[in-house]
Amino acid sequence: MKVKTLLQAHEAVRRLRPAPGAHRHVWCEYYRQSAEVYRHVADVDQDHHHEAMFWVSRDLQRADEFSESLQEKSASKGA
After folding, report:
1. Is residue 73 in some structural domain?
2. Residue spans of alpha helices (H) in the chain
3. Residues 15-25: pLDDT tens digits?
4. Domain membership of residue 67 as a residue range
5. Fewer C-beta neighbours within 10 Å, C or N terminus of the chain?
6. Residue 41 confidence (pLDDT) above 90
């Protein structure tokens, strides 16, 4: 992974961002990938470790929200 600073992580994540109307599954995967980028930065950019870990936590929480939403939608179709 070439990203070495928090600024580079923000730029990389911005480039990965899906279109606003993208499927929930796409958003879920985006937030999981974003968290991976920030986790890497937390390890290599020690000056921004805590801030990068904030972004990891935030993006994993959002991924979980999208995942739960997908599960609820799937369950309602099966009912």
Report:
1. yes
2. 6-16, 24-44, 49-78
3. 999 999 999 99
4. 6-78
5. C
6. yes
